[in-house]
Design a protein that fits this description.
76% of the residues lie in helices and 0% in strands. The chain has 451 residues and is mainly α. The longest helix is centred in the C-terminal third of the chain and has 30 residues. It is globular.
Length: 451
Amino acid sequence: MAISDGMTYGWTSPMVPYFMSNATHIIMTDNDGDWMETINLLGYAAGLPFTILSVDYLGRKISMILSASVGCLCWVLLLTTMDLKVIFTSRFLAGMAGDMCFVAAPMYIAEISDYRIRGFLSSLIYFMMVVGILIVYCTGALAPYWVTPTVGIIFTACQAVFVWFLPESPYYYVYKNKYEKARKALRKLRSHDDLNEELKEIEQEVEREKTEKGRPQDLIMVKSNRLALLISLILNGGQHFVGISVFLMNLQNILDKAGSVYIESSTASIIFAGIMLISTGIAAVIIDSFGRKFLLISSSFTTGLALLVMSIFFHLQHLGYEVSNISWIPAACVMVYAATFKVGLGVVPIVMIAEIFPTTIKALGMTIADVFYVLAAVVSINLYQTLVNYFKIHVPLYLFTAFSFLMILFTILWIPETKGQTLDDIQFMLKGEKGHHNKSEKPDHSEQGKF
């Protein structure tokens, strides 16, 4: 489903030019093309109540199956329709399905993972999303229209079928007082049989969090929850205000504005997605070694530099300077942006947000963070379009540059390092207290089996 969501997110970049061309099978206006981007993001926001209810009452596993089933339906609609209204409906529903996926899946993986590899496994969700973006850039630009929805149907149908065979989260079972089911699920997830201590830790963590209640107002009233919410909102919003949604949905158009004769914009888009995929894979491998804060700071700095150079190029072009001889610069900056953004800013948020909320309000906290992610995307895209129309493209790019450097300051001042910490230890860290457990005292089951 993460692959499908990436395909949905990047779909407009190759598809809107197709719908505007003479080859289109559905007539579309410029305004329709703009709405094609926005309505998908509105679907994410509309999925908020359904996501909260689903992950808490149906469970993480069923939520992932439901998400994939709706996603599959959306691709079927895109494959078979000749009606623009059906396409809008499909995009809206795909946003709702994506919202549920990007709450349920990170929550599930954070809860089933050993703390030593939690960052790696959680970041794979974003890796799969980038796979989806690369797929849609390739199929949308190089293949007939029907190929993209067919690929989407295959991926989502596979998830809807195969996730049935996965165990539910032991945390969810303990939260529902189903202790024997929690033991069975944990037995499937671990390569050793000594489960008593880990089960005891899960029970203690969930019981402690239950005593703190799980009321919506606790997100604000409890200091640690308030800090977790602030961190998640800034991380999710920061991704968009450094321009990622704008680039993913308008990349070909941006490169066309540069007037480069060195590379086709469609080819550059595919390379862009390929670099993001490689960078996400590297981030997944190193996130548990280098830590979250280091990756965020280094990513924000290098991304800001790439945006600054691109801003200066378009500013010079706007002032009337001859820049045709250096028209390769925006394409090069976009590639640097793809590499540096995904190493930190594009991966760390999804890992950290799944770690920092307690079980009792994790669904609500992650869903609010996800909705803010969508709202930030909508605002950034509309802000970009407005500023381009009034002041040309260099102005929003300067704004994105400023936000990149502001993210460095926020990371240094507010974001804790969660590398190598258990979920329970992270809660004590947010409270400013010392954890109950010392990782050096945790049993090492490496002899009984390795991940």
